[in-house]
């Protein structure tokens, strides 16, 4: 059986502006994400989003509001000719409100969402990549077996196994070089 490869992406700060996005009107795509996703797909990568959504646990928005934003996001990507294979989210946060106030194996930097993506998409972690704007995104990916972590940041030093990228275009060059 052939294993797939994927590009796992954090949502806020990678696909859209960073922050607690509580409604569809607050969701604005970062324009540079479209060529990145198209290029990754053309290079044979499955596309998955793995996102901490502690705003639910904090009471900033509801699961229903999050799902409406996700539906809007996926529709916008489809209009651009981009299909996302899997979206995984974690609402739990230890300092949140019940019933979400708890530790979760899915909450990044824990690897639960990454391991679930590997299982559900039949991925080869050694041939897959992750792109995040927070180092916890890449810690989760590494703990889940993903060998290549790309950190979209202005930082100048990164932990071993993490490559700093300054732009989505730079990330695309690395992703397509991994073909």
Q: Nutshell version of this structure?
A:
It is built from 6 helices and 6 strands.
Structure characterization notes:
- With 179 residues, the chain is of the alpha/beta class.
- It has one domain (6-177): Rossmann fold (3-Layer(aba) Sandwich), CATH 3.40.50.1000.
- The chain is built from 6 helices and 6 strands; from the N terminus they run βαβααβαβαββα.
- It has helices at residues 33-42, 54-57, 63-79, 112-120, 135-143, 168-177, and strands at residues 6-9, 46-52, 86-90, 129-132, 148-152, 162-165.
- The chain has a 6-stranded parallel beta sheet.
- α1 (33-42) runs parallel beside α6 (168-177).
- The longest helix has 17 residues, at 63-79.
Give the name of the CATH superfamily.
Answer: HAD superfamily/HAD-like
Under the CATH scheme, the architecture is: 3-Layer(aba) Sandwich
Report the sheet-strand fraction: 15-25%
CATH fold name: Rossmann fold
pLDDT below 50 for ≥5 consecutive residues: which ranges? none
Instruction: Please give the number of β-strands.
Output: 6
Distance between the ends: 19 Å
Outline the biggest β-sheet: 6 strands, parallel
Oligomer: single chain
What's the number of helices? Answer: 6
Q: CATH class, anyone?
A: Alpha Beta
Record the strand order, biggest sheet. Answer: 3-2-1-4-5-6
Structural class: alpha/beta
Provide the number of structural domains: 1
The average pLDDT is 97
């Amino acid at each position: 059986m052939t294993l797939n490869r994927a590009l796992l992406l954090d949502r806020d700060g990678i696909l859209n502006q960073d922050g607690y996005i509580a409604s569809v009107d607050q969701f604005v795509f970062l324009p540079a994400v479209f060529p990145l996703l198209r290029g990754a797909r053309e290079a044979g990568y499955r596309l998955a989003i793995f996102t901490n959504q502690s705003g639910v646990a904090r009471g900033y928005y509801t699961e229903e509001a999050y799902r409406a934003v996700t539906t809007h996001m996926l529709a916008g990507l489809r209009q651009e000719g981009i299909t996302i294979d899997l979206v995984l989210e974690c609402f739990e946060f230890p300092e949140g409100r019940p019933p979400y106030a708890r530790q979760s194996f899915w909450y990044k930097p824990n690897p639960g969402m990454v391991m679930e993506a590997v299982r559900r998409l039949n991925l080869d972690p050694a041939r897959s990549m992750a792109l995040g704007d927070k180092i916890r995104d890449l810690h989760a990916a590494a703990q889940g077996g993903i060998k290549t972590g790309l950190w979209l940041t202005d930082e100048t030093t990164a932990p071993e196994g993490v490559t700093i990228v300054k732009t989505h275009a730079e990330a695309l060059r690395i992703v397509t070089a991994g073909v």
